[in-house]
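User: Structure with adenosine-5'-diphosphate, tokens only please.
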Amino acid sequence: MNILAFDQGTTSSRAILFNDRFEALSSASQPIEQIYPAEGYVEHSAEELFSSVLRCAAECLYGLKIKPDAIGITNQRETVVVWERATGRPIHNAIVWQCRRTADACEKLKRAGFADYIKEKTGLPIDAYFSATKISRILDTVPGARESAERGELACGTVDSWLIYRLTGNHLTDVTNASRTMLYDIINRRWDKELCRITGVPECMLPEVVDSAHDFGSVRRDGDIPSSLWGVHVLSALGDQQASLFGLRCFSEGDVKNTYGTGCFTLMNTGALPKKDRDLITTPAWSIGGRMMYALEGSVFNAGSAIQWLRDSLGIISRASDITEAAERSAKLDNDNVMFVSAFTGLGAPYWDMYARAGFVGITRATSKDRICRAVLEGIAFQVYDLVRAMETSGVSVNSLTVDGGASASDYLMKFQAGLLDLTITRPDFTETTALGAAFMAAITLGAADMDSLSVLEPPCRKFSPSMSEEQRRELLSVWQRAVAAIRAF
Ligand code: ADP
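Assistant:
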């Protein structure tokens, strides 16, 4: 059995071919052009999103004489495409999740008092990230589009839906992607008519919502599509963070995954019942056989970006990986309290302080460059600690932490994080966990795997056990809390 996973991301598209032991046989990637039509606006060419995936697939399969048994899809979330049903032609560039053009529309929804209703139905705060206001803006921008949409001539969808439509001709999406539109009722599992009305999105444009493990249809015999894909069925679709949760095998309640990237994306599996939290997003984790699993989601806005800042703006390190040795050197020499709170763009959960700005505290004449590096690395771990503790207020205790993302390569960060949380951390050697999650899900639809068989896989990984005393942890956390209070008071 071979599964071809597509990972259509914000900066690149990738394809990875997996064998039946979920080992990567080949892979390919293509960068995606970022289009910035105005300050705060971000777009992608919808055609490029599709063609880049096809190019990756062709490159991945080139010379292998393998026809995949299934395709799995994972994708950047919230980004949305509107196209003509008759021709499949997009009527506008894809509006990307980062795009802030509908911030005004979101403010209006807040002022009209819809925040509680939207949180209750969708698990989301009102924000320009999510697709609904972006779809409506396209209909208001392209002449005649709104009338055309109301006549049923236009379709819309998140990136999974767009790729599936172009590959198979079917207009479908999975629950994890539907849940990022701000239109989907995650409890009753249907598009919410009231949300369609208040955001101005005609329901007839929306795709049918199905499980993440589903037969989305077979790839069309079309000259534009590599013949090695013709007839292959698309057997999974899920948003990238959910795919990472699945690929890291966080299958049980209390399993947490953290991606240490530019920012951190943290998801906690909360089981078959949705947990409500004022400060965090309640989201479907996946759906298999009509059975939905839920998660809580939060993020640390600035994590790896602080390491980039040390490298690119301050020049304290020349490569991101240098930070680990610097921190280790400092840990041997220094036992003072220097803290860095990386609030470059405010603080997320549990503080939600958009006005906070970053700061070092505890600097003396003796503070070295290495000590600064260590404070930056430890600052990431403190913020993840705060987020995980915030998740636990839902009543679900953290059971395990599995990690991926660029900065998870730092052993010092992993050891420090394990100590703070008093928890063993698992870091798989294979880093393409998002694509792996899509492949796992497709294998489930194919009947070639189930949760039990995936649970017993033993992919090579490194484990980091806690080695911090209770007293040390208490002292560090108390200093951290004072550091956060100090920068927020600035
Ligand atoms: P994204 O997908 O958000 O761009 P990645 O998962 O590729 O992020 O991670 C990139 C981040 O990881 C960068 O901010 C970089 O500073 C950090 N990083 C990369 N390699 C290392 C390393 N060896 N040690 C510590 N941090 C690293």
